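Annex B. Sample input.
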Amino acid sequence: MQHSKGFIAYLVTTAALCGALVMVVEVIGSRVIGPFFGVSLFVWTSLISVAMVALAVGYAIGGRLSDRKSSPDWLYGIIMLAGVLVMLIPIFKGPVLQVSIPLGLRWGALTSAFLLFGPPLFLLGCVSPYVVKIAAREMHNIGRTVGTFYAISTVGSVVGTLLTGFVLIAYLGVNQIFLLAGTLLIALSVGYFIFFRRKWAAVFAAILPFLLLPQESHISKVMPDGTKVERIVDRDGYYGNLKVVDYSYLEKHNREMLIDGMVQGGIDKHNGLSTYEYPYLLQFLPFALNPDGKKCLVIGLGAGLVPNWYQAQGISTEVVDIDPAVVELAHKYFDFNPAIPVHIEDARYFLIDTTQTYDYLIIDVFNGDTTPGHL
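Annex B, continued. Sample output.
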């Protein structure tokens, strides 16, 4: 197959896009397994290890395969398969995590990362040696060819990392990002087969993965004991996945806020009171120790129950929270008092910069199941 300048440009696009999507899968992987194993050293160690091993094996196998099957058809077939596997991650994550959780934090995180992200990253690892093999035929200078395409792939990885962390997570959500990444890979493959091979049947092959995708999952379910569970909000933000879930049974109606699967607060919808003991301890113990206090600072809003109570006692109350989405949900779904000032910033910097003094300082911030050391 004679390689035109247009095809070389397409190979450049392939290297850049595949490099970017490798990092998209790796970065977004923390949002898939993090809620179950904590966004901790174990999770990132597992993700980085799996990515490095999968890519290394992909480089080796891709290099050997490109020597035996040097047609670009194989390259873009591999890319299409990688796209399908990326799109299926949201479907497989439930069963994989159910199997992995009993293995504990270390092995559970490593196993889930390997099963979910290893196969597509392995296939994406095959891309680089294939691209270099094909491009070298036309460009002849092997050193410059290898350097150019690995540089392009690395630049793509940087762009993919920045886009995922700064833009995609907040605006699309985890499942939609995997759908977008898989779609781009499939479209890249289909584009090759249509424009360079004139094989229109590739279009039908590309449609098949979309037929396998499930429809939008049910937002309500009735449990065996008759309790109706309804998901009111499901949103991915910069700092975690946010959910608001309602539980109703006969006359009872409770509502909870969850961040990365951990309950941040729950109320009885009939009276607005907390359904958990923890907020009562947070509010009553400091007040009992100093009943004459006049000013209160709460670090970490959650559902807003504790600052609401202090404000109701006539105590001037302020809140610091890093996530504006939490504040929005607290106002909209948990009757958080809009008269209470909320400082949207990192609490460490607020505490360093503020000149205010407070009679009560209530810290309700967690990273996983521990309070961050810097607070």
